[in-house]
């Protein structure tokens, strides 16, 4: 597969703060890539650079074969962006919003109306299409916002935290839409705070921290890195005891609190952990064996919970 | 660019069809008009001022002075909602958003002018002819837009749209009070005269009054102000909207 988005050594600083530190990345055409990282890792800066809102200080990038720095207008003709904020007009109706974007993207009047009607139906908004957006629920707004990005189909779609603040049901329907889009061959770069969302939607996951890519792979590959089949999760409430346990188990990356998670594939590995604790006379409050999650990956890579 | 601007102006005007705008553009100019008419009528007539010709241009100037506040309000709102960013990720001319805003503000500025000229008719305000009426409207709108450009720069740079809108409200008061908008030159002390004379509100309102009455207009001072401010704020606005 060829890469439709390709970044080479992209850097961006704000004063003395380095937001992107020579970041390189290739996104294969037709895939869904989940971009994860703790707050301040550079996710938003990266999206802003790729969507032509910010100019990187150095490095280069191409989207759909067009250079981000020298041909931003051509890049804009190949991307669509749905941000954290619903960039739609409150006082206009859902239909008026979509027709406006269609007209702005040079569709004829009738074509813009047809596209708007089709999208409203596809997103289950037909019944509310002619009501002002201010009467919409949060989930409906997000759907309309996403629909606005699809008025004229683009090969690359940026979804910046598309489900933040949504209830579980709205989240599910939005996920279905993203899967739908993927099946039509759209390449999607998705940032999210929810690891489960990345797990559900993304073909590949890219974890960034301090403006660099710290891990990349399928969800399974990343989970294998923390412990193939299973991990052992140890909870100790007392900070002193927890610290001692970390030391004897040879862990350092887990951060200040939360569970200590160790790879524990097979009985032997688990027994080893238990023996170590026994020898150090540490009594954990809770000890469990489970499948690794992206949360574990995240903690082990960044030392911070997402 | 013409197409993009047209579509954006259509949307902006559609967004202007609100009760808030009706109050801003129709009701509040009329309230100002009535208020000042009651307070100033006798006072100025006693001083030998033709009140019917004097007052409407003054209230028009007030309405024009408030236009930048709504420019800042709308740009601030588009910035906060994410609409501005969304437009900037689309293959449309980056300046069409700015030009559409000004086009919309020009239309919005015409509304209080028409309302006030109609209200003025009741107290005896008359134009010397059609060209003088057209010139009157064009000059007033051009004056409003030169300040709207400044408001656009403030709004696009300011992190807080609420405070930028109220900050824009402030300079209008001293500018209006130290001008010939509400008082003829003869009421000011001599030492203040140069300030009053150079104030953009004075030169524009004087030109508006001369235009309406069909008297010779001294075009240079108002045009110098309008062109100067438009160039200064215009360049800054273009740079601010093109960044990235």
Quick one: overall form of chain A? elongated
Q: Tell how many strands the DSSP assignment of chain B holds.
A: 0
Order of helices and strands of chain B: HHHHHHHHHHH
Q: In the CATH hierarchy, what is the architecture of the largest domain in chain A at level 2?
A: 3-Layer(aba) Sandwich
Quick one: how many beta strands of chain A? 13
Helices and strands of chain A: which structural class?
A: alpha/beta
Shape of chain B: globular
Our count of helices of chain A gives 11
Oligomer: heterodimer
Structural class of chain B: mainly alpha
Features:
heterodimer, A: 306 residues, alpha/beta, 2 domains, four-stranded antiparallel β-sheet, 11 helices, B: mainly alpha, globular
Task: Give structural notes.
The complex is a heterodimer of chains A (306) and B (244). With 306 residues, chain A is of the alpha/beta class. Chain A is built from eleven helices and 13 strands. A six-stranded mixed sheet of chain A has the order 6-7-8-3-9-10, with helices on both faces. Chain A has a four-stranded antiparallel sheet with strand order 2-1-4-5. In chain A, helix 3 packs across helix 4 and helix 3 packs parallel to helix 5. Helix content of chain B is 79%, strand content 0%. Chain B is built from eleven helices and no strands. In chain B, helix 2 runs antiparallel to helix 3 and helix 6 packs parallel to helix 11. Chain B is globular. Chain B starts with a helix and ends with a helix. At the A-B interface, helix 2, strand 6 and helix 3 of A face helix 1 and helix 4 of B.
In short:
By secondary structure, chain A is of the alpha/beta class. In chain A, 38% of the residues lie in helices and 25% in strands.
């Amino acid at each position: 597969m060829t890469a439709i988005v390709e970044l080479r050594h992209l850097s961006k600083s704000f004063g003395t703060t380095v937001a992107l530190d020579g970041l390189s990345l290739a996104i294969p055409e037709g895939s869904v890539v989940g971009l994860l990282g703790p707050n301040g890792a550079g996710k938003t800066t990266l999206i802003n650079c790729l969507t032509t809102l910010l100019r990187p200080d150095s490095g280069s990038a191409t989207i759909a074969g067009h250079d981000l720095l020298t041909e931003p207008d051509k890049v804009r003709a190949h991307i669509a962006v749905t941000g954290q904020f619903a960039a739609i007009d409150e006082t206009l109706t859902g239909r008026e919003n979509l027709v406006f974007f269609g007209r702005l993207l040079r569709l004829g009047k009738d074509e813009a109306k047809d596209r708007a009607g089709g999208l409203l139906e596809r997103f289950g908004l037909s019944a509310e299409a002619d009501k002002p957006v201010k009467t919409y629920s949060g989930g409906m707004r997000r759907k309309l916002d996403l629909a606005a990005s699809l008025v004229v189909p683009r090969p690359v779609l940026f979804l910046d935290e598309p489900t933040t603040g949504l209830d579980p049901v709205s989240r599910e329907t939005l996920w279905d839409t993203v899967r739908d889009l993927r099946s039509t061959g759209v390449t999607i770069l998705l940032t999210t705070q929810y690891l489960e969302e990345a797990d559900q939607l993304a073909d590949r996951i890219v974890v960034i921290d301090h403006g660099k890519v710290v891990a990349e792979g399928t969800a399974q590959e990343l989970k294998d890195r923390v412990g193939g089949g299973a991990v052992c999760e140890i909870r100790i409430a007392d900070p002193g005891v927890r610290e001692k346990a970390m030391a004897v188990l040879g862990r350092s990356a887990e951060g200040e609190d939360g569970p200590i998670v160790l790879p524990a594939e097979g009985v032997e590995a688990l027994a080893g952990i238990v023996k170590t604790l026994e020898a150090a006379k540490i009594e954990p409050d809770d000890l469990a064996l489970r499948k690794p999650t992206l949360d574990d990956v995240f903690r082990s890579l960044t030392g911070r919970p997402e | 660019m013409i197409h993009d601007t047209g579509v954006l102006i259509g949307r902006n005007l559609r967004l202007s069809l609100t009760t808030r705008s009706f109050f801003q553009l129709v009701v509040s100019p009329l309230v100002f008009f009535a208020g000042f008419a009651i307070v100033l009528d006798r006072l100025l007539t006693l001083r030998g001022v033709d009140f019917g010709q004097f007052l409407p241009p003054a209230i028009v100037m007030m309405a024009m002075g408030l236009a930048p506040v709504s420019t800042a309000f709308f740009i601030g709102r588009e910035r906060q909602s994410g609409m501005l960013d969304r437009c900037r990720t689309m293959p449309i001319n980056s300046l069409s958003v700015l030009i559409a805003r000004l086009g919309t503000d020009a239309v919005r500025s015409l509304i209080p002018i028409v309302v006030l000229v109609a209200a003025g008719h009741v107290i005896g305000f008359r134009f010397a002819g059609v060209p003088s009426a057209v010139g009157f409207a064009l000059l007033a709108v051009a004056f409003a837009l030169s300040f709207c450009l400044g408001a656009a720069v403030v709004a696009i740079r300011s992190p807080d749209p609420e405070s930028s809108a109220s900050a824009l409200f402030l300079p209008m008061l001293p500018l209006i009070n130290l001008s010939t908008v509400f008082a003829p030159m003869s009421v000011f002390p001599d030492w203040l005269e140069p300030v009053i004379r150079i104030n953009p509100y004075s030169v524009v309102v004087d030109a508006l009054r001369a235009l309406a009455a069909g008297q010779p207009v001294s075009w240079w001072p108002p045009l110098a102000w309008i062109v100067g401010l438009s160039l200064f704020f215009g360049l800054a606005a273009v740079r601010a909207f093109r960044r990235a």
